[in-house]
Protein backbone atom coordinates (compact mmCIF):
# COMPACT_ATOMS: atom_id res chain seq x y z
CA UNK A 1 0.00 0.00 0.00
CA UNK A 2 1.22 3.47 -0.85
CA UNK A 3 1.28 5.22 2.52
CA UNK A 4 0.52 8.93 2.36
CA UNK A 5 0.34 10.27 5.93
CA UNK A 6 3.49 11.82 7.40
CA UNK A 7 3.87 13.55 10.77
CA UNK A 8 2.43 16.88 9.61
CA UNK A 9 -0.54 15.53 7.63
CA UNK A 10 -1.42 13.07 10.41
CA UNK A 11 -1.25 15.91 12.95
CA UNK A 12 -3.67 17.89 10.81
CA UNK A 13 -5.97 14.88 10.65
CA UNK A 14 -5.97 14.69 14.47
CA UNK A 15 -6.07 18.30 15.75
CA UNK A 16 -9.27 19.54 14.10
CA UNK A 17 -11.45 16.52 14.91
CA UNK A 18 -10.25 16.31 18.52
CA UNK A 19 -11.07 20.00 19.00
CA UNK A 20 -14.35 19.55 17.11
CA UNK A 21 -17.34 21.57 18.20
CA UNK A 22 -16.07 21.19 21.77
CA UNK A 23 -13.84 24.26 21.44
CA UNK A 24 -16.99 26.32 20.79
CA UNK A 25 -19.34 24.67 23.27
CA UNK A 26 -17.24 23.57 26.27
CA UNK A 27 -15.32 26.70 27.41
CA UNK A 28 -18.57 28.70 27.94
CA UNK A 29 -20.11 25.78 29.85
CA UNK A 30 -17.08 25.56 32.17
CA UNK A 31 -17.17 29.31 32.84
CA UNK A 32 -20.91 29.19 33.56
CA UNK A 33 -20.26 26.47 36.16
CA UNK A 34 -16.99 27.66 37.71
CA UNK A 35 -16.46 31.30 36.71
CA UNK A 36 -12.80 32.33 37.06
CA UNK A 37 -11.99 28.83 38.34
CA UNK A 38 -12.83 27.28 34.95
CA UNK A 39 -9.14 27.21 34.05
CA UNK A 40 -8.53 24.81 36.95
CA UNK A 41 -10.99 22.31 35.49
CA UNK A 42 -9.31 22.64 32.09
CA UNK A 43 -5.85 21.97 33.57
CA UNK A 44 -7.16 18.72 35.11
CA UNK A 45 -8.96 17.78 31.88
CA UNK A 46 -5.88 18.39 29.74
CA UNK A 47 -3.75 16.24 32.07
CA UNK A 48 -6.26 13.42 31.61
CA UNK A 49 -6.24 14.14 27.87
CA UNK A 50 -2.47 13.75 27.75
CA UNK A 51 -2.75 10.34 29.41
CA UNK A 52 -5.58 9.32 27.09
CA UNK A 53 -3.56 10.39 24.02
CA UNK A 54 -0.39 8.62 25.16
CA UNK A 55 -2.14 5.36 26.04
CA UNK A 56 -4.09 5.03 22.78
CA UNK A 57 -1.13 6.10 20.63
CA UNK A 58 1.09 3.46 22.29
CA UNK A 59 -1.61 0.85 21.68
CA UNK A 60 -1.99 2.00 18.05
CA UNK A 61 1.74 1.48 17.48
CA UNK A 62 1.37 -2.15 18.56
CA UNK A 63 -0.99 -2.93 15.68
CA UNK A 64 -0.24 -3.05 11.95
CA UNK A 65 -3.84 -3.16 10.71
CA UNK A 66 -6.53 -0.53 10.18
CA UNK A 67 -8.63 -2.50 12.66
CA UNK A 68 -6.70 -0.35 15.11
CA UNK A 69 -6.76 -0.55 18.89
CA UNK A 70 -9.47 -3.21 18.76
CA UNK A 71 -6.81 -5.75 17.76
CA UNK A 72 -4.89 -5.01 20.96
CA UNK A 73 -8.12 -5.29 22.93
CA UNK A 74 -8.48 -8.78 21.45
CA UNK A 75 -4.91 -9.74 22.28
CA UNK A 76 -5.15 -8.57 25.90
CA UNK A 77 -8.76 -9.43 26.76
CA UNK A 78 -9.70 -12.12 24.22
CA UNK A 79 -11.03 -12.27 20.65
CA UNK A 80 -14.64 -11.77 21.75
CA UNK A 81 -13.76 -8.37 23.20
CA UNK A 82 -12.02 -7.33 19.97
CA UNK A 83 -15.21 -7.95 17.98
CA UNK A 84 -17.27 -6.29 20.69
CA UNK A 85 -15.07 -3.18 20.64
CA UNK A 86 -15.23 -3.00 16.83
CA UNK A 87 -19.01 -3.29 16.84
CA UNK A 88 -19.34 -0.63 19.54
CA UNK A 89 -17.31 1.82 17.44
CA UNK A 90 -19.25 0.99 14.27
CA UNK A 91 -22.56 1.43 16.09
CA UNK A 92 -21.43 4.78 17.49
CA UNK A 93 -20.54 6.01 14.00
CA UNK A 94 -23.92 4.91 12.68
CA UNK A 95 -25.48 7.63 14.87
CA UNK A 96 -22.85 10.23 15.83
CA UNK A 97 -22.08 11.81 12.42
CA UNK A 98 -25.73 12.82 11.96
CA UNK A 99 -25.54 14.99 15.08
CA UNK A 100 -22.26 16.51 13.86
CA UNK A 101 -23.86 17.26 10.48
CA UNK A 102 -26.74 19.08 12.15
CA UNK A 103 -24.35 21.01 14.40
CA UNK A 104 -22.25 22.08 11.40
CA UNK A 105 -25.34 23.02 9.39
CA UNK A 106 -26.53 25.16 12.30
CA UNK A 107 -23.35 27.24 12.18
CA UNK A 108 -23.57 27.53 8.38
CA UNK A 109 -27.21 28.62 8.51
CA UNK A 110 -26.43 31.26 11.14
CA UNK A 111 -23.90 32.82 8.76
CA UNK A 112 -26.15 32.85 5.67
CA UNK A 113 -29.34 34.97 6.00
CA UNK A 114 -32.50 32.91 5.50
CA UNK A 115 -30.59 29.61 5.33
CA UNK A 116 -32.39 28.23 8.40
CA UNK A 117 -35.44 27.67 6.18
CA UNK A 118 -33.37 25.22 4.13
CA UNK A 119 -31.43 23.51 6.92
CA UNK A 120 -32.20 19.99 5.64
CA UNK A 121 -30.71 20.97 2.28
CA UNK A 122 -27.53 22.25 3.99
CA UNK A 123 -27.28 18.97 5.94
CA UNK A 124 -27.38 16.90 2.75
CA UNK A 125 -24.89 19.18 0.96
CA UNK A 126 -22.42 18.75 3.85
CA UNK A 127 -23.00 14.99 3.87
CA UNK A 128 -22.35 14.66 0.14
CA UNK A 129 -19.29 16.92 0.34
CA UNK A 130 -17.91 14.74 3.13
CA UNK A 131 -18.49 11.57 1.07
CA UNK A 132 -16.77 13.17 -1.94
CA UNK A 133 -13.64 14.05 0.09
CA UNK A 134 -13.49 10.61 1.70
CA UNK A 135 -13.72 8.88 -1.68
CA UNK A 136 -10.79 10.96 -2.94
CA UNK A 137 -8.58 9.04 -0.53
CA UNK A 138 -6.25 9.64 2.39
CA UNK A 139 -4.22 12.37 0.68
CA UNK A 140 -7.28 14.58 0.16
CA UNK A 141 -8.47 13.88 3.70
CA UNK A 142 -5.10 14.86 5.13
CA UNK A 143 -4.91 18.09 3.10
CA UNK A 144 -8.45 19.23 3.96
CA UNK A 145 -8.13 18.57 7.69
CA UNK A 146 -4.61 20.07 7.79
CA UNK A 147 -5.91 23.32 6.26
CA UNK A 148 -8.93 23.43 8.60
CA UNK A 149 -6.83 22.63 11.69
CA UNK A 150 -4.06 25.10 10.84
CA UNK A 151 -6.42 28.01 10.15
CA UNK A 152 -8.51 27.30 13.24
CA UNK A 153 -5.50 26.95 15.52
CA UNK A 154 -3.86 30.12 14.18
CA UNK A 155 -7.02 32.25 14.50
CA UNK A 156 -7.88 31.04 18.02
CA UNK A 157 -4.35 31.31 19.42
CA UNK A 158 -3.65 34.76 17.93
CA UNK A 159 -7.11 36.03 18.98
CA UNK A 160 -6.68 34.67 22.53
CA UNK A 161 -3.25 36.26 22.97
CA UNK A 162 -4.46 39.57 21.52
CA UNK A 163 -7.55 39.45 23.75
CA UNK A 164 -5.50 38.81 26.90
CA UNK A 165 -3.10 41.64 26.05
CA UNK A 166 -6.09 43.92 25.41
CA UNK A 167 -7.45 43.44 28.94
CA UNK A 168 -6.81 46.20 31.49
CA UNK A 169 -6.19 43.53 34.14
CA UNK A 170 -5.83 39.76 34.18
CA UNK A 171 -7.88 37.65 36.61
CA UNK A 172 -6.50 34.42 38.05
CA UNK A 173 -8.28 31.87 40.27
CA UNK A 174 -8.02 32.90 43.92
CA UNK A 175 -9.55 29.79 45.50
CA UNK A 176 -10.30 26.19 44.75
CA UNK A 177 -13.82 25.45 43.42
CA UNK A 178 -16.31 23.29 45.31
CA UNK A 179 -15.58 19.61 44.80
CA UNK A 180 -19.12 18.75 43.67
CA UNK A 181 -19.26 21.56 41.09
CA UNK A 182 -15.73 20.74 39.87
CA UNK A 183 -16.69 17.07 39.50
CA UNK A 184 -19.80 17.90 37.47
CA UNK A 185 -17.76 20.19 35.23
CA UNK A 186 -15.05 17.57 34.66
CA UNK A 187 -17.67 15.05 33.54
CA UNK A 188 -18.79 17.46 30.81
CA UNK A 189 -15.26 18.49 29.81
CA UNK A 190 -14.21 14.86 29.42
CA UNK A 191 -15.61 15.01 25.87
CA UNK A 192 -12.74 17.33 24.98
CA UNK A 193 -10.33 14.38 25.09
CA UNK A 194 -12.35 11.85 23.10
CA UNK A 195 -10.98 11.09 19.63
CA UNK A 196 -7.49 9.71 20.25
CA UNK A 197 -8.81 6.13 20.26
CA UNK A 198 -9.32 6.01 16.46
CA UNK A 199 -5.75 6.96 15.49
CA UNK A 200 -4.90 3.28 15.07
CA UNK A 201 -7.47 2.91 12.31
CA UNK A 202 -5.11 4.85 9.99
CA UNK A 203 -1.96 2.86 10.77
CA UNK A 204 -1.78 1.21 7.30
CA UNK A 205 -1.81 4.66 5.69
CA UNK A 206 0.99 6.10 7.85
CA UNK A 207 4.64 6.31 6.83
CA UNK A 208 6.81 4.60 9.49
CA UNK A 209 3.97 4.28 12.06
CA UNK A 210 6.19 3.62 15.09
CA UNK A 211 7.84 7.06 14.85
CA UNK A 212 5.18 9.03 12.99
CA UNK A 213 2.27 8.21 15.31
CA UNK A 214 4.11 9.30 18.44
CA UNK A 215 5.51 12.47 16.85
CA UNK A 216 2.08 13.42 15.46
CA UNK A 217 0.48 12.75 18.83
CA UNK A 218 2.93 15.09 20.60
CA UNK A 219 2.38 17.89 18.06
CA UNK A 220 -1.40 17.44 18.15
CA UNK A 221 -1.52 17.24 21.93
CA UNK A 222 0.53 20.44 22.27
CA UNK A 223 -1.78 22.22 19.80
CA UNK A 224 -5.00 20.98 21.43
CA UNK A 225 -3.84 21.89 24.96
CA UNK A 226 -2.59 25.32 23.85
CA UNK A 227 -5.82 26.17 22.04
CA UNK A 228 -8.15 24.99 24.83
CA UNK A 229 -6.15 26.65 27.63
CA UNK A 230 -5.60 29.98 25.86
CA UNK A 231 -9.20 30.13 24.62
CA UNK A 232 -10.65 29.44 28.07
CA UNK A 233 -8.31 31.86 29.85
CA UNK A 234 -9.00 34.62 27.33
CA UNK A 235 -12.76 34.01 27.44
CA UNK A 236 -13.06 34.09 31.23
CA UNK A 237 -11.05 37.34 31.30
CA UNK A 238 -13.32 38.79 28.59
CA UNK A 239 -16.15 38.70 31.13
CA UNK A 240 -14.41 41.59 32.96
CA UNK A 241 -15.15 40.20 36.40
CA UNK A 242 -18.94 40.39 35.98
CA UNK A 243 -21.19 38.14 38.04
CA UNK A 244 -22.03 35.10 35.93
CA UNK A 245 -25.54 33.61 36.07
CA UNK A 246 -27.35 31.02 33.97
CA UNK A 247 -28.71 33.85 31.81
CA UNK A 248 -25.26 35.38 31.12
CA UNK A 249 -24.43 35.17 27.42
CA UNK A 250 -20.95 33.65 27.06
CA UNK A 251 -19.74 32.97 23.54
CA UNK A 252 -16.27 32.03 22.30
CA UNK A 253 -16.74 34.72 19.63
CA UNK A 254 -16.02 37.28 22.37
CA UNK A 255 -12.30 36.54 22.21
CA UNK A 256 -12.27 37.40 18.49
CA UNK A 257 -13.92 40.83 18.95
CA UNK A 258 -10.76 42.88 19.72
CA UNK A 259 -9.12 41.57 16.54
CA UNK A 260 -12.02 41.05 14.12
CA UNK A 261 -14.75 43.36 15.44
CA UNK A 262 -18.25 42.79 14.05
CA UNK A 263 -17.02 39.94 11.84
CA UNK A 264 -16.20 37.80 14.88
CA UNK A 265 -19.46 35.82 14.87
CA UNK A 266 -19.13 35.03 11.17
CA UNK A 267 -15.53 33.88 11.58
CA UNK A 268 -16.43 31.76 14.61
CA UNK A 269 -19.31 30.19 12.67
CA UNK A 270 -16.94 29.24 9.86
CA UNK A 271 -14.41 27.84 12.36
CA UNK A 272 -17.04 25.77 14.17
CA UNK A 273 -18.52 24.40 10.93
CA UNK A 274 -15.02 23.57 9.66
CA UNK A 275 -14.10 21.71 12.85
CA UNK A 276 -17.33 19.71 12.74
CA UNK A 277 -16.52 18.81 9.14
CA UNK A 278 -12.98 17.74 10.12
CA UNK A 279 -14.48 15.49 12.80
CA UNK A 280 -16.71 13.83 10.22
CA UNK A 281 -13.77 13.18 7.91
CA UNK A 282 -11.60 11.61 10.61
CA UNK A 283 -14.25 9.46 12.31
CA UNK A 284 -15.89 8.15 9.13
CA UNK A 285 -12.51 7.61 7.49
CA UNK A 286 -11.35 5.60 10.49
CA UNK A 287 -14.42 3.39 10.77
CA UNK A 288 -14.75 2.64 7.03
CA UNK A 289 -11.11 1.51 7.06
CA UNK A 290 -11.78 -0.66 10.07
CA UNK A 291 -14.86 -2.19 8.40
CA UNK A 292 -12.87 -2.99 5.24
CA UNK A 293 -10.08 -4.60 7.29
CA UNK A 294 -12.61 -6.72 9.21
CA UNK A 295 -14.26 -7.77 5.93
CA UNK A 296 -10.85 -9.00 4.69
CA UNK A 297 -10.73 -11.31 7.71
CA UNK A 298 -14.30 -12.52 7.28
CA UNK A 299 -15.65 -10.74 10.38
CA UNK A 300 -17.95 -8.66 8.14
CA UNK A 301 -19.57 -9.45 4.74
CA UNK A 302 -17.00 -9.72 1.93
CA UNK A 303 -18.62 -6.98 -0.18
CA UNK A 304 -17.34 -4.39 2.35
CA UNK A 305 -13.72 -5.15 1.44
CA UNK A 306 -11.63 -2.47 -0.18
CA UNK A 307 -11.03 -3.37 -3.83
CA UNK A 308 -7.53 -3.19 -5.24
CA UNK A 309 -6.79 0.30 -6.56
CA UNK A 310 -9.52 2.02 -4.51
CA UNK A 311 -8.43 5.15 -2.66
CA UNK A 312 -10.86 4.45 0.17
CA UNK A 313 -13.32 1.69 1.25
CA UNK A 314 -16.22 2.99 -0.87
CA UNK A 315 -18.76 0.26 -0.11
CA UNK A 316 -18.42 0.65 3.65
CA UNK A 317 -18.77 4.43 3.23
CA UNK A 318 -21.88 4.05 1.05
CA UNK A 319 -23.45 1.69 3.59
CA UNK A 320 -22.89 4.10 6.49
CA UNK A 321 -24.03 7.09 4.40
CA UNK A 322 -27.27 5.28 3.50
CA UNK A 323 -27.97 4.73 7.20
CA UNK A 324 -27.20 8.40 7.92
CA UNK A 325 -29.67 9.45 5.21
CA UNK A 326 -32.32 7.29 6.87
CA UNK A 327 -31.70 8.98 10.24
CA UNK A 328 -31.83 12.44 8.63
CA UNK A 329 -35.20 11.51 7.08
CA UNK A 330 -36.50 10.36 10.50
CA UNK A 331 -35.29 13.57 12.19
CA UNK A 332 -36.84 15.75 9.46
CA UNK A 333 -40.20 14.04 9.99
CA UNK A 334 -39.94 14.31 13.81
CA UNK A 335 -39.77 10.57 14.44
CA UNK A 336 -36.49 11.00 16.35
CA UNK A 337 -34.38 13.97 17.52
CA UNK A 338 -30.76 15.00 17.02
CA UNK A 339 -30.30 14.76 20.80
CA UNK A 340 -31.41 11.13 20.61
CA UNK A 341 -28.65 10.30 18.10
CA UNK A 342 -26.08 12.04 20.34
CA UNK A 343 -27.11 10.00 23.37
CA UNK A 344 -26.96 6.71 21.46
CA UNK A 345 -23.58 7.53 19.91
CA UNK A 346 -22.14 8.60 23.27
CA UNK A 347 -23.20 5.33 24.87
CA UNK A 348 -21.27 3.28 22.30
CA UNK A 349 -18.26 5.63 22.24
CA UNK A 350 -17.92 5.32 26.01
CA UNK A 351 -18.09 1.52 25.92
CA UNK A 352 -15.50 1.34 23.14
CA UNK A 353 -13.15 3.62 25.12
CA UNK A 354 -13.73 1.57 28.27
CA UNK A 355 -12.60 -1.65 26.57
CA UNK A 356 -9.52 0.11 25.20
CA UNK A 357 -8.57 1.51 28.60
CA UNK A 358 -9.08 -1.82 30.36
CA UNK A 359 -6.84 -3.51 27.78
CA UNK A 360 -4.22 -0.77 28.19
CA UNK A 361 -3.76 -1.78 31.84
CA UNK A 362 -1.97 -4.84 30.45
CA UNK A 363 0.17 -2.70 28.11
CA UNK A 364 1.73 -0.30 30.65
CA UNK A 365 4.10 -1.12 33.49
CA UNK A 366 4.10 2.19 35.36
CA UNK A 367 2.10 2.08 38.60
CA UNK A 368 1.25 5.79 38.20
CA UNK A 369 -0.06 5.24 34.66
CA UNK A 370 -2.14 2.29 35.84
CA UNK A 371 -3.68 4.45 38.57
CA UNK A 372 -4.43 7.27 36.15
CA UNK A 373 -5.95 4.89 33.60
CA UNK A 374 -8.09 3.39 36.38
CA UNK A 375 -9.29 6.91 37.21
CA UNK A 376 -10.28 7.45 33.57
CA UNK A 377 -12.14 4.14 33.60
CA UNK A 378 -14.12 5.23 36.67
CA UNK A 379 -14.99 8.57 35.02
CA UNK A 380 -16.29 6.75 31.93
CA UNK A 381 -18.38 4.37 34.04
CA UNK A 382 -20.01 7.37 35.74
CA UNK A 383 -20.70 8.91 32.32
CA UNK A 384 -22.17 5.63 31.09
CA UNK A 385 -24.61 5.64 34.00
CA UNK A 386 -26.29 8.70 32.45
CA UNK A 387 -27.05 6.90 29.17
CA UNK A 388 -30.75 6.82 28.16
CA UNK A 389 -32.89 3.69 28.34
CA UNK A 390 -32.91 3.29 24.54
CA UNK A 391 -29.11 3.54 24.56
CA UNK A 392 -28.89 0.70 27.05
CA UNK A 393 -31.29 -1.42 24.98
CA UNK A 394 -29.23 -0.95 21.80
CA UNK A 395 -26.03 -1.55 23.76
CA UNK A 396 -27.38 -4.85 25.09
CA UNK A 397 -28.57 -5.82 21.59
CA UNK A 398 -25.18 -5.15 19.97
CA UNK A 399 -23.42 -6.97 22.83
CA UNK A 400 -25.64 -10.05 22.50
CA UNK A 401 -25.26 -10.11 18.70
CA UNK A 402 -21.46 -9.79 18.98
CA UNK A 403 -21.11 -12.48 21.63
CA UNK A 404 -23.69 -14.71 19.93
CA UNK A 405 -21.82 -14.63 16.63
CA UNK A 406 -18.56 -15.55 18.31
CA UNK A 407 -20.21 -18.27 20.38
CA UNK A 408 -21.52 -19.76 17.13
CA UNK A 409 -17.99 -19.90 15.72
CA UNK A 410 -16.72 -21.53 18.92
CA UNK A 411 -19.50 -24.15 18.91
CA UNK A 412 -18.93 -24.99 15.24
CA UNK A 413 -15.19 -25.34 15.80
CA UNK A 414 -15.81 -27.56 18.84
CA UNK A 415 -18.16 -29.81 16.83
CA UNK A 416 -15.64 -30.13 13.98
CA UNK A 417 -12.86 -31.09 16.41
CA UNK A 418 -15.13 -33.59 18.10
Summed up:
This protein has one domain: Amino acid/polyamine transporter I, CATH 1.20.1740.
Name of the top-level CATH class: Mainly Alpha
Rounded radius of gyration (Å) = 21 Å
Number of domains: 1
| Unreliable residue stretches | none
Would you give the CATH topology? Amino acid/polyamine transporter I
CATH homologous superfamily annotation: Amino acid/polyamine transporter I
- In CATH, the architecture is Up-down Bundle
Separate helix tally: 15
Largest sheet: none
Q: In percent, how much strand structure appears in the residues?
A: under 5%
Range of helix content: over 70%
Distance N terminus to C terminus?
41 Å
Query: H/E series, N to C?
Result: HHHHHHHHHHHHHHH
The count of DSSP E runs of length 2 or more, i.e. the number of strands, is: 0
The structure class reads mainly alpha
Shape summary:
globular
| Mean of residue pLDDT values | 84
Give a verbal description of the structure.
- This protein is mostly helical and 418 residues long.
- It has a single domain (7-388), classed as Amino acid/polyamine transporter I (Up-down Bundle).
- Helices cover 73% and strands 0% of the residues.
- The protein has helices at 7-19, 22-34, 38-61, 69-77, 79-111, 119-135, 138-166, 179-189, 209-238, 257-260, 264-297, 314-332, 338-360, 367-384, 389-417.
Q: Which tags fit this structure?
A:
418 residues; mainly alpha; Amino acid/polyamine transporter I; 15 helices; 73% helix; AA/rel_permease1; transmembrane helix; APC family permease; APC_superfamily
